[in-house]
Structures are given as C-alpha cells and as structure tokens.
Amino acid sequence: xxxxxxxxxxxxxxxxxxxxxxxxxxxxxxxxxxxxxxxxxxxxxxxxxxxxxxxxxxxxxxxxxxxxxxxxxxxxxxxxxxxxxxxxxxxxxxxxxxxxxxxxxxxxxxxxxxxxxxxxxxxxxxxxxxxxxxxxxxxxxxxxxxxxxxxxxxxxxxxxxxxxxxxxxxxxxxxxxxxxxxxxxxxxxxxxxxxxxxxxxxxxxxxxxxxxxxxxxxxxxxxxxxxxxxxxxxxxxxxxxxxxxxxxxxxxxxxxxxxxxxxxxxxxxxxxxxxxxxxxxxxxxxxxxxxxxxxxxxxxxxxxxxxxxxxxxxxxxxxxxxxxxxxxxxxxxxxxxxxxxxxxxxxxxxxxxxxxxxxxxxxxxxxxxxxxxxxxxxxxxxxxxxxxxxxxxxxxxxxxxxxxxxxxxxxxxxxxxxxxxxxxxxxxxxxxxxxxxxxxxxxxxxxxxxxxxxxxxxxxxxxxxxxxxxxxxxxxxxxxxxxx
Length: 484
Ligand code: NAD
Prior knowledge:
Blueprint: E1 11-16, H1 21-36, E2 45-50, H2 56-70, H3 78-85, E3 88-92, H4 101-107, E4 113-118, H5 125-134, E5 142-146, H6 154-165, E6 173-175, H7 183-193, E7 207-215, H8 224-228, H9 231-249, H10 258-270, E8 280-285, H11 294-297, E9 308-313, E10 325-330, E11 337-344, E12 362-368, E13 372-380, E14 389-397, H12 398-401, H13 403-407, H14 412-422, H15 431-451, E15 456-458, H16 466-473
Parallel strand pairs: 1-2, 1-4, 2-3, 4-5, 5-6, 7-10, 8-15
Antiparallel strand pairs: 7-11, 8-9, 9-10, 11-12, 12-13, 13-14
Helix pairs in contact: 1-2, 1-14, 6-15, 9-10, 9-15, 10-15
The structure holds nicotinamide-adenine-dinucleotide.
C-alpha cells in the first residue's frame, strides 16, 4: 500500500528554541522526514531562532548533527540532507531583549503561511507573542505552536491561555499533545467511527471496564529536578492519558472537524467524577542494588512526588455510568508499553455450562511497541476432548498489515507539524479542554497534599506498588500484565 503525500502550501516556520533538545530530537528530524517524503515545498523556509550566537552555517551544522544522531542511517543520505539544509537559516534572538527581532522581521514573509514554534520555556511565551506583534512579524495568517507543560494547575493554565489570547485568536494557537499525533491514537477514531462492529458495544451495557496503561522502564534520570515538580499526574495523566480517555469515551462528533471533535472531548472531561482517595494509588520506585531510588534521582530526599500513579476514573454520563476507567502510568516498570484495553462483559448465558477456559473478550490497542490492535475471541479448543474453550487473538500489527508503509509509521511530530501548516487543529488541544482537565486534576492533587499522603515504594522492574493491584481486586478485576 502506497501512502499518498498531499503537499502543503509553502511556509515560513520559525523555531524559537531551535538549538534546544526538542528541536534537535524531534522538530528538525520530523521536518527532514517530511522533506524526504516530498511534502516540503521548494520555497518553504525553516528559521531557527535561539540565544546562541550562530550564523546560518553554524545552525545548519547543528541541524546536520541532529539528523545524524536522530535519523536512522538507512533513511538519510548526504544529498537529501544537503538539499534539506538549504531550506534552513538562523537568527540569534533574545525573547526578553530586542536583539535579532528586526532581522527576523526582514526574513519572515507576509504572503505565505507563517508558523512560530515556541519550543522554549512557557515563561517566555508572553515575551515572544508580544514581540512578534510589536515588530509586525505576526499577523492574522500566523500560527503558533506551544509545547507541554501547559500550566501546572488551573490558575497557571488560565493565565497562559490569557497571555496567548491577548495576542492570538484561539484558531491560531496549536497546543501540542504529541500523543494525539500517534498513528494508533488517530486509529482509535477510525476504529470507532469507520466500523459498524464496535460502536453498538461501546457502552456500559457491554464494556465491563477500560484499562489505560503507559509504562516506562526508564527512571527520571537526568530530568529528576524537573520531574520532581510535576510527578506522574501532571506529566502523564492530566494531558496524554486524559486525551486517550476522551477518544475512547467521547460520543461520535457530527463530523471530523476540529471543533466538533474537541467539543465531544470536552464533554467527557466535564463528565468526569471527582476521584476519591481510595481510588488513587501513588508510588515511588525504591533503590535496587545497582540503581538509585526515585528520591536519589530527584536529588530530593524528602520528595513525596509520585513516579507511579493508578486511578479509578468514573465518567458520569449515560454511556459510561458503571464502567470504570482504570489508568496507570509509571517509571521503572517491568516493560515499556502503552496500551488501551477495552474489556467486555461476560456473555449473558453460557450454553456450554461451566466450560473451562472462558475469558472475556478484550480489544487491546497497542500504542507502543509494535503499534496495532488485538481482539481476543473465544473458540473451541481443537481436538476430540469435549467442548473446551480457548482464547485466540485476532492480531493486527499495523506495520505488517500496511506493508512497507507500515514499517515506516511517521513520528507524531511529523503529522502534527504538517497539520499546523495545513491549518488543521483537530489533533491539538483547545484552551477550554486544557483548563477543564486541570479543573478535574487540581482537587486530586490538593487532596493528597492536604492529607499528607506519601507514595508507596515499589521495586524497579515490577508492575508498581502492591496497592495498585488491590485497586482492581477490590472491584473483582485484575490488571493486564505489563509486557512488551
Ligand atoms: P532546552 O532547554 O533544551 O532548549 C531551550 C531553547 O530555548 C534553547 O534553544 C535556548 O537557546 C532557547 N532560549 C532560552 N532562553 C531564551 C531566550 N531568552 N530567548 C530566546 N531563546 C531562548 O529545552 P527543550 O527541552 O528543547 O524544551 C523546549 C520546550 O519544549 C519546553 O517548553 C519544554 O517543556 C517542551 N518540551 C520538551 C520536550 C523534550 O523532550 N525536550 C518534550 C516535551 C515538551
């Protein structure tokens, strides 16, 4: 199957923070891959802008080094890299000063799509937005892209929205949640709304519960000090996992249109019930014989920040009342895996009596590794030994099913950056969505802070703290295994 490449209009993309980690690891490599994919017009321009005192050649050398480090050698060649680098220039700029702004104003064209990627600390967003206008660089045709974290609570997210709104309309603001750019996550919508099979069963009458797992094997390592200020709930739950939950729980939008989709997601967030303390388990990894504990990694011996969290979340609406969503995410777990599992109810009556081997149907959607879907179904165990049942997977690996194209599933950032150029906000979070998510998260955090709750220790390489098992056992359920 050959994927179609739909060219985008020509553009000027300014990467503020163009020398930073995100630009090197994700933004520049994604642009290169789209370039090789034939999607970048000949006269499109990419302008790095950051504090470092570099010239164009110096920035191209930095970009080239980033491609060497982050693009698989099989997918890059000197000739393509050279042609790609010809699109790139650089302006040394200070978001808080005046240096560089006149030069940038001279470079950015008014007649093409303009995108400004704010790949800098959120404290600089206001300065950038204000100067882009004062220097008559940005206009009504401009788009800005902002990264996570979008605030650390409702008040700060609200302030950030207000700062951006004083310079740009909501239709110009692209808040990135890179989970939404993952192919499998978009596939959730295709699976639900392009097939007749699942939707009739997609409700509390037929779904027993949903499990969403995002497990990592790494610790907080070098990011300890940053991570310690956020913890798993701010780093993963309020944004990425909330988005996954919304895509599973939302009603069918009337059309695949940015506001139609985002309206439906917002309704889900508003329908979330407050989470009571017995439905929250927080954990912190402890030291192993040759590996540091969380508090050592965070360099904060008294830290009560969670590196693991599991929650039971209830959606109070007609579709989902009575079907819990169990969310868990953590560092230093036994495998690196992200999965959504829709666990269906039992058949209403077993004609096989107590036939051995019966298990519930599960639709498991794997985000990583090996993106794909598995539907477990019951069949008769082969052989003459009577009617015994066994579970078999209807397994679809997207990479295999889509052949050559599937082996090259694009990075989330490729899709998202091209959507910015196309002016399509469907896969970006709207300001009210982000605030609603914080409005639900804030009382959870305030609750454990007021109670002085401490996270439970768990072993590196385990599935998390014991108490998290109880969260489901108590409800007569069990977690799926964390396995690659
Ligand atoms: P970084 O510290 O590696 O880079 C910061 C960049 O900002 C540098 O290019 C620096 O020159 C520039 N900068 C700093 N002060 C400036 C100023 N006054 N004027 C102009 N430029 C200035 O940061 P990063 O890891 O690339 O992260 C950038 C943004 O992306 C942050 O908001 C971060 O939260 C977000 N983010 C990063 C990652 C990641 O994996 N690195 C992931 C998700 C979100």
